[in-house]
Design a protein that fits this description.
single chain; mainly alpha; four-stranded antiparallel sheet; globular
């Protein structure tokens, strides 16, 4: 990831805390960011809402009450580490609440959750107040990061679009001269959760003329041209421009609302007539109350990707993998091909619910082997080891990409060449960050990123985590818990879509995590099956991944320093 925000502000003004906040927000919202660094699906406050929602499903006997245990587990850990709540509630009160939750009946837990939900009903304001206080501290980056993890889920679940927050963050910090921290009031004032009026101009196939009366009377569409109509370029022989007045939190949500209005009609039209017509021009025009206009997508974008490879690289990798699979695992080729078809159907589907269900079906096909265990227990035991084994490599591959994208090539090559060992550049970066013998090179590397406090902080944090074996062990343990909670949440979401047909507020965020998991698992399985000494079947790959993780956990217990050989082991595939 190459950061757009680099703090080139007026008169050489620098503020490390504020710049870190801007870059961390950029990273968490960027389309191609790895799922490890994306916005969390929930914070403490939203987990309480999830608990209530799940309680209702349990009472209706739609799901097993065991799911409540996992939400409670996640809530207690998140609540205990919630830096915003710690700023507004005494430590003794928080400890007492946790103790009470751990020893109460389901009925009493629900009552306590209700109490907390109302006690913290101004959680969004608490987040802003704390962020304003901590951002001005240049050496409190970990606290700033924790506060952002609390704040952004509140915005997304409150109705703001991820695309809008990303663009606003970029525009705010790049398109003005920043000379003091006073701008923070202006920055946060945009997120006041107040509806704004928008006029959205979309272009529909000229077939819409035959439904003009329906669109005008039922959908409140306007077919008249005005002074903004010419701002949107389109083929007038094919399309007709139509506008809608909507109220929403931001321009991207306004575009989405308009699409939903029109698509409700078109969905029935296509169904009743068994039609496959494509109606929309991809882009639309949104005009706000101040007559500022924006060109944005009208069609749903689907779930994001963790990587953005160029066509040449993709082609080369595809050729190598197909050849290797046919040579070394031809018996599994048909199964892999089936899974890839489902995957491609999912990512090409603009309906996020359908896409989510297809992605989840891949998880079940891979992870369920019809043993006596519950479906979810099977899935967890089958696929979590794959994700855990990839964690170290993904972490340092991501850091490598950040370093290389935000430094001059000559400087990057000089630093890499200082590590005189025959390994990949990814492994060299891991060695620089972790190993004591490269302390001087690591300090030199950090010094190159004066305008990138996020990268400086990431290098220091990873060094502190991974310089001892038990640091890796503890990090993997935390990651495993997060993945387990997420998988259970995804399963509940799958059930909610199928059985109740309800709209899921956080489906985009959750679906992007699911998409990342599926991509990682499919990639690892394909790579392992394509090896010369293949494991032959998907199940054999999964068994090997479990054995490998169990062995790794045993080795990495203890306070010994991580060595060069340990790094090579963690990179083994």
């Amino acid at each position: 990831m190459k950061f757009k925000i680099s703090g080139q502000w007026s008169d050489g003004y620098k503020h490390d805390g504020m710049l870190f906040f801007a870059q961390k927000t950029e990273e968490m919202l960027f389309y191609y960011t790895n799922h490890m660094y994306k916005v969390p699906v929930y914070n403490s406050y939203l987990l309480m809402w999830e608990y209530f929602h799940t309680c209702q499903f349990v009472k209706e006997k739609a799901i097993n009450e065991g799911h409540l245990k996992y939400i409670l587990e996640e809530f207690i850990e998140t609540f205990d580490n919630d830096i915003v709540i710690k700023n507004n509630m005494s430590e003794d009160r928080m400890k007492y609440i946790i103790q009470t939750l751990n020893s109460s009946s389901l009925l009493d837990i629900e009552r306590i959750m209700h109490y907390l939900f109302h006690y913290l009903n101004n959680y969004d304001e608490m987040c802003v107040d704390y962020l304003k206080k901590i951002i001005v501290e240049p050496k409190e980056k970990k606290k700033i990061e924790r506060a952002i993890n609390c704040y952004l889920p509140t915005l997304l679940n409150g109705g703001y679009s991820q695309q809008f927050i990303y663009k606003y963050n970029d525009k705010f910090w790049n398109n003005r001269n920043i000379s003091s921290t006073n701008v923070l009031d202006e920055y946060f004032s945009r997120f006041d959760f107040k509806q704004r009026k928008y006029k959205v101009y979309i272009c529909l196939d000229k077939k819409v003329k035959q439904f003009k009366k329906i669109f005008e009377t039922r959908l409140k569409a306007n077919f008249e041209q005005d002074k903004f109509s010419s701002k949107l370029k389109y083929d007038k022989n094919k399309y007709l421009q139509v506008s809608f007045d909507v109220e929403e939190l931001d321009e991207n949500k306004a575009a989405q609302r308009t699409y939903d209005i029109v698509n409700l009609f078109l969905r029935f039209y296509k169904f009743l007539g068994n039609r496959r017509d494509e109606w929309y021009l991809e882009k639309c025009l949104v005009v706000d109350e101040n007559e500022e206009f924006y060109i944005t997508d009208i069609l749903p974008s689907g779930y994001s990707y963790s990587k953005d490879y160029d066509d040449k690289t993709i082609g080369q990798h595809s050729e190598v993998l197909i050849t290797a699979l046919l040579n070394n695992a031809h018996n599994s080729f048909g199964e892999i091909n089936k899974l890839l078809k489902i995957h491609n159907t999912a990512i090409n589907d603009s309906d996020m619910q359908n896409s989510f269900l297809n992605l989840w079906s891949i998880v079940e096909i891979i992870g369920v082997n019809k043993r006596d265990d519950s479906k979810m227990t099977e899935i967890e035991e089958s696929i979590i080891p794959v994700l855990l084994n990839d964690y170290f490599e993904n972490t340092f591959e991501e850091l490598h990409d950040y370093i290389k994208a935000n430094i001059e090539e000559e400087k990057y090559q000089k630093i890499i060449s200082d590590v005189d060992i025959e390994v990949s550049e990814y492994e060299k970066i891991a060695c620089i960050v972790i190993l004591k013998q490269y302390d001087a090179i690591r300090k030199k590397l950090i010094a190159e990123f004066g305008d990138y406090p996020l990268i400086r902080s990431r290098i220091s944090q990873l060094h502190n985590i991974f310089n001892e074996k038990n640091g890796y062990f503890n990090e993997i343990d935390k990651y495993e818990r997060r993945v387990r909670w997420h998988l259970r949440r995804m399963y509940r979401t799958r059930n909610a879509i199928i059985h109740s047909g309800e709209d899921i507020d956080n489906l985009k965020s959750l679906g992007e995590h699911l998409h990342s998991y599926v991509d990682e698992i499919l990639y690892e399985i394909t790579i392992q099956l394509a090896k010369k000494h293949s494991y032959c079947t998907i199940d054999n790959v999964l068994i090997n991944e479990k054995f490998k993780m169990d062995e790794t956990k045993k080795i990495f217990k203890g306070k010994d320093e991580i060595t060069y050989d340990d790094i090579l082991r963690l990179y083994e595939r």
